[in-house]
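Entry 12.
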Amino acid sequence: MIESYKLQPANFNPDTPKEFVLLSIIAQSFFQPFSLEDNLLVILTALTSGAGIGFNRAMLFLKDGEKLKATMWLGPRSPEEAEAIWSMLSSPGLGYAEIVEHNRDLVIRMMESLQPKLKSFIYSLEDDNLLLPALAAKKQEIMLVTEAQSDPLVDPNFLDFVQVDSFLCLPLVAHDEVMGEIVVDNGITHAPITRKDIELASLCALLAGNYIYTTHLYKKVVEMEKMAALGEMAAFVSHQLRNPIVAIGGFTQQLLKSPCNPEKCYRNLNIILDEIKHLEEIIYKLSHFLKIKIKELLPIDFKPILLGILERPDIKAKAKNKTISIRIADEAPLILCDPVYFEETVVNLLDNALDVTPPGGRVYLRACKKNKKWLTIIIKDSGPGLDKKSLEKMFSPFYTTKENGIGLGLLFVKRVMEMCGGKIEVQSKPGHGTMFKLYFKAQERGQP
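Predicted 3D structure (tokens):
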């Protein structure tokens, strides 16, 4: 007997252990394209939902430089509001996604009225006389506060805002660095905060701290990649433009220094014109390949486009003394793409294949239906093939094995395939040529 279950538990169940519910709620961030703010909202949901840990309210602080700033509040402000919210959240069949969506709307509504007050809660972590709740973040310790009204270590302004006598401070820490803090309380039900509540809440705090840390780390990596790409582009532009500019300058000086005979002037001017065309080509490729915009994917009949490519003068010229073997499956479906970008993609790969195929060699162009969902276009050359290093770097910007290449063609192909919802595969090894497989989403003819 086989029993099947969904990857994500669909609904809250009051009989399910809180540990499992907590794990299920937090796991939503791995199934959804959540932002950092949404991931933190998932954590606050796990802390405050009745099926989760069940705190009444949660307040989020995030570290900004050496300051701790209040940024989010989740929970009701009055018993009447709490009754309305909890009645809705206890509806039969309510799923995790609906709970998070409800809480997102709740936060937005609350923040409209609470934002001015929340903005006032800014604590300097360098302050030697820091008060709770920020003191817990500075010491990196979970702190349960009871009888807060009479405790001199509690910020009276914070107490005036939360209007509770007991609350729990949960520092958000990752790699011994404070990322923020969550403060939870039971200001509506006044239920005591138990040791089990604290243990479960500490897991939420650990995850929240790591969410923030990894997000910051990812941003740093992205910035480093951007700087590296700028460096590569600067080096590329400098390398590509230097020779044409030097040539233009040199031959222009010859024309200006002394009178020259018409034949020499004509030669120099033609050289200058050729170098200007070279510069124009470089600038065009840079702007064209890096600005790909497909507004709408259309079902296109690719067969006439492929046959038309073979009749292009530039392809015919490169195919001289070589053979292009084409085979297209009968009753091939339509593919989803942009017709212009599709043609440029195939031309790029076919152009490369013809460049590396020796005279008398053969280039294979195939189009076959993989299954109902995908159609595959294959372009294979008879060239020398690629080593492991070249395979790993082939889609990197400005990487090329051609003497006069600029290293943007394959990057262009990859980006077009991604924007069409397809994918690209490469197979190659030295001495056995290179094969590109383009996978396009297929649509049967006549299908609306």
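Annotation: The mean pLDDT is 82. The first helix runs from residue 18 to 31.
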